[in-house]
Please model this.
Amino acid sequence: MASSARDRLTPRAREIVDAARGLLEEEGPDALSMRRVAERLGIRAPSIYKHLPDKQALETALISAAFEEQAAAFEAAIEASDDPLASLAAAYRAFANVHPHLYRLMTERPLQRDRLAPGVEERAARPLVEAVGGDRDRARAVWAFAHGMTILELNRRFPPDADLDAAWHHGLEAFS
Amino acid sequence: MASSARDRLTPRAREIVDAARGLLEEEGPDALSMRRVAERLGIRAPSIYKHLPDKQALETALISAAFEEQAAAFEAAIEASDDPLASLAAAYRAFANVHPHLYRLMTERPLQRDRLAPGVEERAARPLVEAVGGDRDRARAVWAFAHGMTILELNRRFPPDADLDAAWHHGLEAFS
DNA sequence: TGACGTGGCTAACGGCGTTAGCTAGACTTG
DNA sequence: CAAGTCTAGCTAACGCCGTTAGCCACGTCA
Model:
């Protein structure tokens, strides 16, 4: 099962996206500059524009790949478990905590859906819709809860002594 | 009832924060530059540093003021209503939709609590804690849901045809 | 009167995304 | 094989950004 988002890129573009991914994960969003990405590949920033139209395209490629990884994690989480909603929630939280900068990039700005790899957003959403029994409104409410818990945790908006496991439990209980 | 966050500033600093607020609300986050703020006041960017230590202080002042306005809106929403949770949720969503750029600024990065006006975060949080009967874990779960719905709406992450009222209703129902 | 603090200013630094224009080398084609 | 064309790099530059250094006019106050 190949990664369709990667396949849309030329080999050199893929190397650029890989460099960007490493930079983002290791050093955070401020390091994700065209000059830093180029430096990592031993070239100059303007050369990147021979392979990708602009920085937004680079970010969109990162986001597309992230959606696919997320979807794969969700599918695996559901498969093994007899409490799909709980393991989905755990997988959601885990993905964001392992890839905090990537998760922020995925969620903090309006999605450029036309520049995204097609189908990738739906694939990441489907496991949750199925886990709640097909009710899309309910799925959206649960997603909002999960994203809220996740991003508020990443942004350290809860008090340092807050029991986040308890809050997660409360929410999942309410939605069950 | 004076605005304590504003009172912490010198009069000139208050003018700078006001100019920044207008710029942010009217033109979005890219317009919130030291040069643009200065231009609005008929001065040059470096002069701002006579009144505020850096751009982060400017943003923190905006956030402090926003917390106070939010808290006032929440308190008013609870007072009039016999369904505190529902009107609190409506007030939460309304504040973010009226001040989208300000709401993003308030939530999208880790809070510099030591630079914030003291007490302002707690004051904005209290109405919800009371509305859910004092259980802080439950309050955090509801907040996560409300923030998730709100920021996903602002960032247009729901499909364009999604029935957000229905999703809000679902969530509030689950938490009641 | 003279010292000093206040609040402006210009010039500059190093960063950013991006564009224009050049070129060495590879590849294609008559 | 020669000529042309495409690829993928380069430098220089533009106009932004936050921020610092250093200068100066003005008002206040001893």
Remarks:
- Chain B has ten helices and no strands.
- Residues 12, 43-44, 46-47, 50-51 of chain B lie near DNA strand C (CB under 10 Å from a C1').
